Amino acid sequence: MLIETLRGHGYSRVDDRAFEKPGVIVDLGCNGWDWGSVFLGRKRYIGADPFAQQRDDAELFNGVVGARNMPIEISTENDKSSIMSEVKTSRVVPTSMVTWRVFCSNFAIDRVAVLKMNIEGAEYELIDSMTLEDFSKIDQLAISFHDWMIPQWKVKTERAIAKLERFGFGVQKIDDRYGWHLAIRNP
Prior knowledge:
alpha/beta; Rossmann fold; 7-stranded mixed β-sheet; 13 strands; 17% helix
């Protein structure tokens, strides 16, 4: 059964088996910590965002999980930020990017109940960089594909969905406005 991780926001839906499945909740783009509020205090919760503030009931990587290990510059304005050159904002902040594998190693993650990605277009390179072994540890992915911002990215969304399906996930669109999709590992 699908539940809203943030009451009243349909884009935040995941399968409720997230509470029974082993593994942590990983929130990439956790600034504000609202998306997964239903999990805080109930499951180990790890967020990654260069602008988020540490919470007592969660762990935080103040950086970006992406396709490479390197220092990067992220542009930001109010509540919008991006490492993608197509998305322009007014202020640039230095931070670091680590790969999914380095992130998992740093936080001793071996199983993921839900991986949420709202990373402003960087989801494409991250998914491209992940292997079958990486995905085998994940039960669900809640992803905001940003082709709603940049229509030319539609082909990237289709490629990412095809990869998820090849690696054993059923993928459904759960919100049109902001391109949210839910990928659930097939039995």
